[in-house]
């Protein structure tokens, strides 16, 4: 197994673990998600799927670089979403009609998979600390790690 394949598997597993932690937080510890929270879950899942499709379908080399570039962009979008949640949305009484809310509702994912993508809290109510650090900052840091690992895949030579 090549280094790029291992990196892609690692990125995918980290993303799935992040969603798993979010689901445990929601369903076990009653930390209800806001629209920006579930949008970030979607980004993590898409990154994992892109990584695994890249490993299973695409050939190493150019195929893995395409995956690396795609996941780098998605990771940076995740950083932006988490940053917006932390700096703007968390200060609002409601995140209704923000991009995240409109996107998740328009996609139908919130109604189709409410246990995963249901929006049950306002952004202000969803401000939760984990070991003294807000969830949004943990997510932003994890997206930064994903983006860094994706950049390694992108620039790695065969």
From TrEMBL:
InterPro entries: DiS_bond_form_DsbB/BdbC, DsbB, DsbB-like_sf. The chain crosses the membrane at residues 7-29, 41-59, 66-84, 135-155. Keywords: Cell membrane, Membrane, Transmembrane, Transmembrane helix. It is found in: Cell membrane. It is a multi-pass membrane protein. Coiled coil: none annotated. It comes from the Bacteria. It holds the Pfam family DsbB. Its main location: membrane. Gene3D superfamilies: DsbB-like. The keyword Repeat does not apply. This is Disulfide bond formation protein B. It comes from Neopusillimonas maritima. The lineage of its organism: Bacteria, Pseudomonadati, Pseudomonadota, Betaproteobacteria, Burkholderiales.
């Amino acid at each position: 197994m090549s280094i790029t394949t291992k990196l892609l598997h690692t990125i995918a597993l980290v993303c799935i673990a992040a969603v798993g932690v979010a689901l445990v937080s929601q369903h076990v510890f009653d930390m209800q998600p806001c629209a920006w929270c579930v949008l970030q879950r979607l980004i993590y899942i898409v990154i994992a799927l892109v990584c695994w499709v890249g490993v299973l379908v695409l050939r190493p080399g150019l195929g893995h670089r395409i995956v690396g570039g795609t996941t780098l962009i998605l990771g940076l979008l995740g950083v932006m979403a988490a940053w917006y949640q932390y700096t703007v949305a968390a200060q609002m009484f409601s995140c209704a009609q923000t991009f995240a809310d409109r996107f998740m509702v328009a996609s139908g994912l919130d109604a189709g998979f409410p246990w995963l993508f249901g929006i049950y809290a306002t952004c202000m109510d969803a401000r939760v600390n984990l070991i003294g650090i807000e969830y949004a900052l943990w997510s932003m840091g994890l997206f930064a790690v994903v983006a860094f690992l994706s950049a390694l895949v992108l620039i790695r030579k065969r």
